[in-house]
Amino acid sequence: MADNSFSDGAPSDSLEALQERLDSVSHTPSSYIETLPKAVKRRINALKQLQVKCAHIEAKFYEEVHDLERKYAALYQPLFDKRREFVTGDVEPTDAESEWHSENEEEDKLAGDMKSKVVIAEKEAEAAEEPAPRGIPEFWFTIFRNVDMLSELVQEYDEPILKHLQDIKVKFSDPGQPMSFVLEFHFEPNDYFTNSVLTKTYKMKSEPDKADPFSFEGPEIVDCDGCTIDWKKGKNVTVKTIKKKQKHKGRGTVRTITKQVPNDSFFNFFSPLKASGDGESLDEDSEFTLASDFEIGHFFRERIVPRAVLYFTGEAIEDDDNFEEGEEGEEEELEGDEEGEEEDDADASLKKEPSQPSECKQQ
After folding, report:
1. How many domains does the chain have?
2. Which positions of the chain have pLDDT values less than 50?
3. Is 22 a domain residue?
4. End-to-end CA distance of the chain
5. Residues in a beta bridge with 168
6. Environment class of residue 16 by beta-carbon count within 10 Å: exposed (0-12), middle (13-18) or buried (19+)?
7. Nearest 5 degrees, angle CA 158-CA 160-CA 165?
8. How far apart are CA 340 and CA 335, in angstroms?
9. For residue 121, is it within any domain?
10. How far apart are CA 258 and CA 228, in angstroms?
């Protein structure tokens, strides 16, 4: 009979050898993969191919989501148009439309009854002296002031201009066109520029990167275009004029020249940096500015425009703050639990061993 002891023991020997190799390396995912046999690595590569195909299916899913967003945007728009009419005062809401029951309605009613007896005469006097304001004054400007992300961009000299802002709209790209959306800022006639609409177009990409397909997590903004603002003479707040003295090298005479330099302003929002498309990388500050711009555009589209009244009243901001505080509280609680578990483990070891009006020209 042939001696089969060598062939029977070979698999066991190879497994033991593999285990020794695994034990000898640091236990990081990459180091673990490097230790695997060639046949196993080959199967892992096959799984990666499947993962890439999954990413492409996911991209198709997001394209259909964009189609749904476009469809439902058309359903929302009549409501947003009515919102604009109420804000501007073009239409007065009916009694039924203006009826609203607050959570603290009973408390508000009691407090109101007590105060009304004291202030009713004053209110009547004020009403006689001052005409009722039209619509909801400074609606969008108030939203800018309430939202930190926007208020940080607004300078004091921007404020009188933003008080003329009457509406902000989101327009989605047409079917069959590259994925994008446009923010439209509608202004009433004013003393600052002649445009009735300022636009900002955000271009999106919803397909896995060929060089890094596993980084795909859905559509992302990849570039944006602003528009040209037709400023009236002397009203351009995005530049400032400075005086500079120059001394002639030969004659020693001094002359004063004036030049325009860029000025901080919200309206620089319509002259964005361009994403690098020629292979040259942007510096760190430019990358941060561009990323912030994309974030603001997304916030207008997803939060500000759909829920404008709640950002005007501050309710949406309170909800956002409460949500963030809740997350932090949970994190602290979890950390406390972990510490408790560590202490328990330590004790045990001692015992055992997340409409198209006139618009500005696109840049």
Report:
1. 1
2. 1-7, 327, 329-357
3. no
4. 88
5. 185
6. exposed
7. 90
8. 9
9. no
10. 24
How many other β-carbons are positioned within 10 Å of the β-carbon of residue 91? 14
Interatomic CA distance for residues 135 and 91, integer angstroms: 8
- Total-model pTM: 0.72
**Nearest alpha carbon to residue 218 among 354, 47, 55, 68:** 55
SS (H, E, C) the chain: CCCCHHHHHHHHHHHHHHHHHHHHCCCCHHHHHHCCCHHHHHHHHHHHHHHHHHHHHHHHHHHHHHHHHHHHHHHHHHHHHHHHHHHHCCCCCCCCCCCCCCCCHHHHHHHHHHHHHHHHHHHHHHHHHCCCCCCCCCHHHHHHHHCHHHHCCCCHHHHHHHCCEEEEEEEECCCCCCCEEEEEEEECCCCCECCCEEEEEEEEECCCCCCCHHHCCCCEEEEEECECCCECCCCCCCEEEEEEEEECCCCCCEEEEEEEEECCCHHHHHCCCCCCCCCCCCCHHHHHHHHHHHHHHHHHHHHHCCCHHHHHHCHHHHHHHHHHHHHHHHHHHHHHHHHHHHHHHHHHHHHCCCCCCCECCEC
d(CA 201, CA 270): 9
Question: Letter for the amino acid at 191?
Answer: D
Tokens of 253: 């005479």
Tokens, residue 313: 């009243």
Say what the pLDDT of residue 127 is: 57
Residue 352 lies in a domain: no
Task: Write the CATH number for 171.
Answer: 3.30.1120.90
Question: pLDDT tens-digit profile of 189-238?
Answer: 999 999 999 999 999 888 888 888 888 887 888 899 999 999 999 999 99
Q: Tokens 């901080």 appear where? A: 264
* Residue 185, in any domain of the structure: yes
Identify the domain containing residue 162 by its residue range: 28-93+134-235+264-276+284-320
Rounded distance, CA 217 to CA 208, Å?
Answer: 8
Query: What span, in angstroms and rounded, lies between the C-alpha atoms of 54 and 42?
Result: 19
Structure tokens at 343: 């202490």
* The three-state (H, E, C) secondary structure of 69-81, written as one string: HHHHHHHHHHHHH
